[in-house]
Amino acid sequence: MESFANALDFAYGDLVKSTVHFIHIMNKWFDIVNVKNLFEGRNTNLVPFTDSNDPRLSWMETEFLDYFNNWKAAVDSRPGKFSPKERQQMQLSAQTLHGLQLTSKSIAAIVRIVLDAGAPFVLTSHLNQDPLEQFFGHCRHKGGSNDNPTVNEACHAINTIRTVNTQAIACSRGNTEPIPQILDMTPVPKRPSHIKST
Hints:
Structural class: mainly alpha
Radius of gyration: 27 Å
Oligomer: single chain
Order of helices and strands: HHHHHHH
Helix content: 40-55%
Number of strands: 0
Number of helices: 7
Distance between the termini: 77 Å
């Protein structure tokens, strides 16, 4: 995205200044929340977090969120006879703004907590809710067409998932190494014949 913003700036200059600024802001944010490895040499936004006072964390909580707050304030105070719907169409949706705010503050807090607890580094790309969403998807599937299960129905679905998972056979292919399962085939000792069963 950075190269695209630079190309727009080079080709159109001040005509697209706001768009270029938006792309730069979003590109930096996506880099910060997608730190994947320990050895990023060129892009400083992709360097692993090792300090709870990293300026990228405060940038996410302040400058990044202030950008959208200022955008909203500019739209709300824009002169002209615009309906509330038209003003809403001039900015990001309230749901998107809330999601960006929640994600930015949560990631910054998690990184600080993990580093302060003694972790040597944090890779933000590993902070996601996909496993939880997948689990809820399984629970919904177990409930059939029931989108509003009771507590008992939810507990039953969770127990069913746990029971099935304990019997599942690990996939032989994938991007992780399987844990070797060693089966002990030693025969169980027989009961001595002089002990009678009751």
